[in-house]
Amino acid sequence: MSENPSPESDDRAESAVGCLLAVVGVAVAGAFALPRAAYSIDGGFEAHARDWGVILVDLPLILFAGLVVPPLTWTAAVRRFRPWTAALVCLAVAGLALWGLATWWHPRQGPDPGYGPGI
């Protein structure tokens, strides 16, 4: 066996990292978005506040972005930088994406104002 790895094994390793980043991206996006959307999914009392826009549009788009953005960032960064620098670029892009999502996306978190404590 030679000490220098072949270019094919380098390509396989980079592809494996891209797949791993896709799985981790979906897991992180789901762990971030699902607790915030829990009230919109549950709907509160008798499901009167269920928000189908969150269920059918927002959550699938967030999970899709978590699936697609990390491997695309990895692919673009690894062509230009060394792998460890590309990993830092991926981490920075993921952090900025989560920060932007936290800044922009505010699903309903509790009952509508005006509801009293009940009987």
Concise structural overview:
This protein is mainly α and 119 residues long.
How would you sum up the major sheet? none
Number of helices, where a helix is a run of at least 4 consecutive DSSP H or I residues: 3
Alpha-carbon distance between the two ends: 79 Å
Q: Would you identify the regions where 5 or more consecutive residues have pLDDT less than 50?
A: none
How would you sum up the global shape?
Answer: elongated
C-alpha-based Rg, rounded: 20 Å
How many beta-strand elements?
A: 0
Q: State the assembly state of the protein chains.
A: single chain
- Overall average residue pLDDT: 83
SSE pattern: HHH
Q: Roughly what fraction of the amino acids lie in strands?
A: under 5%
Give an overview of the whole structure.
Helices cover 73% and strands 0% of the residues. The chain has 119 residues and is mainly alpha-helical. The longest helix is centred in the first third of the chain and has 36 residues, at 7-42.
Record the SSE blueprint.
Elements: H1 7-42, H2 52-80, H3 83-104
Helix pairs in contact: 1-2, 2-3
